[in-house]
Amino acid sequence: MSMTSLPADVSAGDRFATPGRTVTESDVVGFSQLTGDWHPQHCDAVWAASSAFGERIAHGMLVLSFSVGLVPLDPDRVVALRRVRDATFKRPVRLGDTIHVEGRVDEVKPVDDSTAIVSLAWSVINQDGKTVTRAVVEVVWRTSHAPASGNGAIAEEPIAGVLPL
To answer: What are 104-126's pLDDT values in tens digits?
Structure first.
């Protein structure tokens, strides 16, 4: 089943797709300023013209960061980002490319009565329908069985390996 947002109770096999986002020169320059990564492949048009890609491209980590913003993670459900693993950068993202995320719930592992670790397989797709990046993202998910608390905080003890918010 394809959807644009994830339901409150997810199950392995659930699928979703996000709207698109066009990567701009401002995005690349802003990311360079924020991270200090001024590699000429991203920021020097003359240098990049003679590179293997023939032009400037977006940072792989910028593309992955955009993915996090594109995926509809409900703040009432997602307690914390736990892990990003197996990130693979398959193709360059050029300035002006439009990307979106197609995802699947790979696994739901209950932790206790109110939380689970949800593994999401993400494929970042460009405007030509080609995969540019893949990653598995694990989140700590508050299930619908979680007790309500007045301030939105989880009253239970911390989950092993997860930093408290």
So the answer is: 999 999 999 899 999 999 999 99
